[in-house]
Amino acid sequence: MKRTKIIDLLNMHPSQVTTPPRPLERGTGGEAGTVCAKGWVRSKRGSKGIFFIALNDGSTIKNIQIVGEDQNFDEATVKLITTGACISVEGKLVESPAAGQAVEIQATKIEVLGACDATYPMQKKGQTFEYMRQHAHMRLRTNTFGAVMRIRHNMAMAIHTYFHEHGFFYFHTPLITASDCEGAGNMFQVTTKNLYDLKKDEQGKIIYDDDFFGEQTSLTVSGQLEGELGATALGAIYTFGPTFRAENSNTPRHLAEFWMIEPEIAFMDQEELMDLEEDFIKYCVRWALDNCQDDLAFLNQMIDKTLIERLQGVLKETFVRLPYTEGINILQEAIKNGRKFEFPCNWGDDLASEHERYLVEEHFKKPVIMTDYPTAIKSFYMKQNTPQGEGSVGYKGCVAPGPTMQGTDVLFPAIGEIIGGSVREESLEKLQGEIDRRHMDTTHLEWYLDTRRWGSCPHAGFGLGFERLILFVTGMQNIRDVIPFPRTPKNAAF
Ligand code: 4AD
Ligand code: MG
What we know:
Blueprint: H1 6-10, E1 34-47, E2 50-56, E3 64-69, H2 75-80, E4 86-95, E5 103-114, H3 129-134, H4 136-139, H5 143-165, E6 169-170, E7 176-177, E8 189-190, E9 217-219, H6 224-234, E10 236-244, E11 257-266, H7 270-291, H8 293-302, H9 307-316, E12 320-323, H10 324-336, H11 353-363, E13 368-374, E14 386-388, E15 391-393, E16 399-400, E17 404-412, E18 416-423, H12 428-437, H13 446-453, E19 459-465, H14 466-474
Parallel strand pairs: 3-5, 6-10, 12-13
Antiparallel strand pairs: 1-2, 1-4, 2-3, 4-5, 7-9, 8-9, 10-11, 11-19, 13-17, 14-15, 15-16, 17-18, 18-19
Helix pairs in contact: 5-7, 5-8, 5-14, 7-9
The chain binds 4-amino-1,4-dioxobutan-2-aminium adenosine-5'-monophosphate and magnesium ion (MG).
């Protein structure tokens, strides 16, 4: 008999069983009212010759209840129905007398597809996330990880839908690259060379001419540079793929392999970029509230009691648009009034997560888009603000004491930086000037500079850290728990 997904069974009325709502899923060949469900046993209990199984197949957070009488089944089979076992059940879909579920299955036939003994690591309730990370391959079968993974899928759908509806083209940028977009040197090298027998020149530098690509290559930290080539040809593109960073950051917000979404748009200015960042993120949050109700309700109950309220809150708020210089003033004022921070925050310092969170969670109590960062703490490609004496003039005439760039990062409650973006420097002369000031090697950037040589145009874009979005939307605390198989320092298991 053909199996019906549990999500569809739970939405069926018993009287519909011969004509279920989704034709492709229709159970065929069975007697009227008979259905077949397959899945993994979440729990089994019994009393007075009757057993109850909570069965889950991953299609929804909800289990379907299977009811059976011991006498109708072979004893050995009933014994094998333990937590974690995979079973196939045929039976009658009936209205359930129990509270909290509309229907249940009165089992007539049960087949154990895969037994599961007591060594199954996801046996008990209330295991710590740390424990579950050690069994990341099996944690997917728990309620929490099922919910997180379904929401993750939904966010990917939301992102593709948003950009498609707004006329952006999905643009595929390479994972293997010879250039370092962020210039931070945090790259994982890609080579086919024998690392035990490296060819070196007289100065002891490795010679790459006999390597696969004939030069030094790495995994990309960002698709932006190639994305800019796409945007200056197609008008508006977005990338959505994995990126890799060998930063030794053992924090709950950093992964060595994470997914990034990078839209890049021709003819867009700073204000429009901030509008896009805000509209896009709200669209994703709204999508979750509209499409992931069961999973959010579960996470709201089990993980974070303020989750749904916080998601709804973000939709209502207008994000604050705050020049970095004004942000520093607010932080300085807080320090004067006795607020203590671990790290310094003078003009020119890169803000630590504690500073970002103070601004977002304590001062404004809403998301902040921070603009016009000091040039020295941002990447070379950002648009330079107009110099004024030693300083510069930026967003809405804000005067800064030093040179600034049109970066526009989105800072979120509980997360900190969720989006990093900027207007790009379109002038070849200014861009080249910045590259020279940073003593950057342009051997692998000439193709990028060609965008400024031939038909250069104003443009802007940003990168959203996909897992940071999932952290926000699920209320999970650790970025290792919102990607199926996390890659972090000293950890590449599974
Ligand atoms: O701010 P970042 O470094 O910006 C860029 O890479 C630009 N090229 C993006 C662009 O303008 N097209 O990274 C963008 C976002 C961050 O805001 C953060 O959400 C996420 O990527 N991110 C990380 N997420 C998880 N683990 C890490 N190690 C991350 N590093 C950055
Ligand atoms: Mg950043």
